[in-house]
TrEMBL record:
Residue span, Peptidase S1 domain: 105-339
InterPro entries: Peptidase_S1_PA, Peptidase_S1_PA_chymotrypsin, Peptidase_S1A, Serine_Proteases_S1, Trypsin_dom, TRYPSIN_HIS, TRYPSIN_SER
SUPFAM superfamilies hit by this protein: Trypsin-like serine proteases
Alphabetic keyword roster: Disulfide bond, Hydrolase, Protease, Secreted, Serine protease, Signal
GO cellular component, one term: extracellular space
UniProt keyword Signal present: yes
Entry's localization field: Secreted
Organism: Culex tarsalis (Encephalitis mosquito)
Name of the protein in its database record: Putative trypsin-like serine protease
One GO MF term attached to the UniProt entry: serine-type endopeptidase activity
Length: 341
């Protein structure tokens, strides 16, 4: 029986194999590739591409990696080299103990014990009323939100679950690194780095966190944990002295966008949304003022992975999803500054 061959289109040294509505190009994972709408993308496994299943149907296909489909994805601030480097650094992080947490922590009332989240840092300012969270990702760098630099942080407190702990390790900040594209009115690219003057002393209560590298949207049933020292009582606007944690779940970007239309906020692929269950008072588990820059994490196997940074919200506990900066979109930006690669 003779074989039926799909037509070949030759252009600029590339081979496009057209089979129905799918075009396959002779490019491999990590290679630059031409997007249908123009411009340059990057060949990635579907699972590592934002809206990968949708793009799989609409965009050009690269060569398979084993049995995994590889598609031409729009470029984010991500390269294969940065992703691999990030995973190598994660391999240096020791296993982290799992705190005793309920599946659904409501009302922001769950207190964390010392060492439950050894990567959490508290940014300190000249005013005790100001506070932001941050996450240790190397011996001298913490990741936070750029909007936390509106006022100048002067130090970072590590290895404690109490704001007022006199025995906590305190480190002087040498420099802050803002993302150059951040605009506080547009609310995009809300990510920044804190560089310390000296290296952090690692111990059981002070360890870095791995960075999440996949850009796939997580199922809404996924348990994520948001952590911080922010407001614990919405009515009294009372900030917490204890480190608090709560379980939240991912929300589809389209659903999240619909709830922010009135605020004229655009939710982009560089962000993710999440909200938690409702408690007896009708308040949903959520981040609040004072939690900014703090971590949104997912636990996989025996480690935590930093998936998001607290960025913005519409009130606290209202049921409107909180918006987080999606860390995986900025691996290249992070790698160039933290590991100089």
């Amino acid at each position: 029986m003779g074989s039926i061959l799909a037509p070949l289109i030759l252009t600029a040294g590339l081979v496009f194999v057209v089979a129905g509505s799918i075009e396959r190009i002779h490019k491999f994972e990590g290679d630059d590739c031409p997007l249908k709408a123009g411009g340059t993308g990057i060949c990635r496994k579907t699972i590592e591409c934002i809206n990968g299943l949708t793009i799989l149907k609409k965009e050009r296909h690269c060569e398979f990696d084993g049995s995994s489909p590889v598609v031409c994805c729009p470029k984010a601030e991500f390269t294969v080299q940065a992703g691999r480097l990030t995973k190598e650094k994660c391999g240096e992080v020791p296993p982290q103990r799992k705190p005793t947490l309920a599946d659904h922590v409501v009302g922001r009332t769950s207190k964390a014990n010392v060492g439950d989240f050894p990567f959490i840092g508290l940014l300190m300012y000249d005013s005790a009323e100001l506070r932001c969270g941050a996450s240790l990702i190397s011996s001298k760098f913490l990741l936070t939100a750029t909007h936390c630099f509106r006022f100048k942080p002067v130090a970072v407190r590590m290895g404690t679950n109490l704001v007022t702990d006199p025995d906590a390790d305190t480190y002087t900040i040498e420099k802050t690194h803002r993302h150059s594209d951040y605009n506080r009115y547009v609310k995009q690219d809300d990510i920044g780095l804190v560089e310390l003057r000296e290296e952090v002393r690692m111990n059981a209560n002070v360890e870095p966190i791995c960075l999440h590298t996949a850009l796939v949207d997580l199922p809404p049933s996924t348990n994520l944990t948001v952590i911080g020292w922010g407001i614990k009582n919405i009515d009294r606007q009372e900030q917490s002295d204890d480190l608090l944690c709560g379980t939240v779940h991912p929300v589809q970007r389209s659903t999240c966008q619909a709830q922010y239309e009135g605020n004229k906020i655009k939710i982009s692929e560089k962000q993710l949304c999440a909200v938690g269950e409702k408690d007896s008072k009708g308040e949903h588990t959520d981040a609040c003022s004072g939690d900014s820059g703090g971590p949104l994490v997912i636990r996989q196997d025996d480690k935590y992975y930093l998936i998001g940074l607290v960025s913005l919200g519409a009130g606290c506990g209202s049921g409107v999803p909180g918006v987080y900066t999606r860390v995986a979109h900025y691996l290249q930006w992070i790698s160039e500054r933290v590991w100089n690669e």
